[in-house]
Amino acid sequence: MKRYLHLLIIAAICATACKKLDLTTPDKLSTKVFWKTEGDADLALTGLYATLYGPNGQVSVFAPMWWDSFSDNSFTQNNQGGAQQSLTAGLTSTVGGFPTSNDQSLYVLCYKGIAASNSFLANVEKVLSGDKLNQYKGEAYFIRAFHYFMLAQTYGNVPLVTEDPLAITDFKQKVAKSPRAEILKLIEADLDQAISGLPAAKYTSGHVVKASAQGMKVRVLMFEKKFPEAAALAKTIIDDGLFALNSTYDGNFYKPDQRSSPEIMFSIQFQAPSVPHEFAITTVIIGSGYKDLQGTQDMIDEYEANDPRKTMSFFFPGDTPAQGWPFPGTVGTPGVNNWTKGYYPAKKWLDPKLINPQPGMLDDQDYVWLRYADIKLMYAEAQNEVAGPDASVYQQVNEVRARPGVNMPVLPAGLSQADMRERIRHERRVEFALEGLRYFDLRRWGIAQQTLNGFVQNPLTPNLKTIYRSQFEYWPLPQIEVDRNAPVLIQNEGY
């Protein structure tokens, strides 16, 4: 870990304060030439949000759609993020991709974001005070909590680092893991700090607000199975009335609707041509030679009859431009242009204005990580675990089902707690298909192994089954990091 803590802060500050490059060599950059004005705080905060973009490459670990290919929802034929190899060959400490890549793994990129957050929090008081200081610190606490929560959900026990990397003098020091409980305790504390410092406002500018932190804390509490606390906090968000379900379901996933959606509570924002995706996600999702996000038959079968979210999220044989097929003059056909037979190419996240996607095109869909619909369904899930399927549980699930443009019928009365639990799990799967939540839901519900071990992704190849062993509940640490910090940093058990 010590390899990149210092380097990231140098990179973040240099990238946002290039005026210093002619004065100080990168290895000498420090607080002596930065943190002098309020403008430096603005630049550094921009650098913090930039840690959520991820590195150069076709896909980013912070793009939620690719996480579904680690689950039973979707398939990536070109092994984006290492998902297909992880499912069919099993996780190993050298599998690469999101789990263990030397430079693009979740582990490395989250610690870069943590390092940037630590440096920001250690220095921002030098140039700010009052409400602005509290808000900026709240944003930094949120970003640090986001990174640490991604680590806690996947790797489990990881190093806990809170000091300013620019203040570290011994870069040969090796770092051990801390228990996941300690990581989660810090995450909750960081989100509490964020909640106290951020404005109680709608989410409009890309800067997180109070409800962003509250919603993320609800997600953390659900992971910890702290259901009474999760239900109470989710209800607070609902009662505050700042957010609502968007008038169009699919408008949450492309511009311009994303920027006016009253449902989005936290997203990683892009804006072409100045800040587009480094490689167009439209091309990777649906372009010829790619089609790297294809729904499984099991995912398609999960939808109820006449649920319009199915055709808003996936393409089907015979689709034409009238159904959003982005190749004018053609008809969607399995087996043609990399449409793998037995799967269904993704439609969600595609901007219908973009046609004939090719490498080099510019697109800028925001990566949505938290929607108000999730708050409503997390409330329903937590309240059902606390008190069973009372009227408030029915209300929140039914309002998501009846959202504008979806209009699914209400749930039947008289469901048991166990029946309601399954209904909520179903609703989460279809509402958030291709949004990066399914894999984490299966793990926190404790059913990942029974669901994914032996799962047949494609009914046309029934002998090809996925692998999910008990040790996969904790991902392997990147082996290069274990070796660099040996013998202090111990590889997770089973790897």
UniProtKB/TrEMBL annotation:
Gene3D superfamilies: 1.25.40.390. It comes from the Bacteria. Residues 295-495 form the RagB/SusD domain. SUPFAM superfamilies: TPR-like. GO terms for cellular component: cell outer membrane. InterPro entries: SusD-like_N (IPR033985), SusD_RagB_dom (IPR012944), TPR-like_helical_dom_sf (IPR011990). It is found in: Cell outer membrane. Its main location: membrane. Keywords: Cell outer membrane, Membrane, Signal. Residues 103-209 form the SusD-like N-terminal domain. Belongs to the SusD family. This is RagB/SusD family nutrient uptake outer membrane protein. The lineage of its organism: Bacteria, Pseudomonadati, Bacteroidota, Chitinophagia, Chitinophagales.
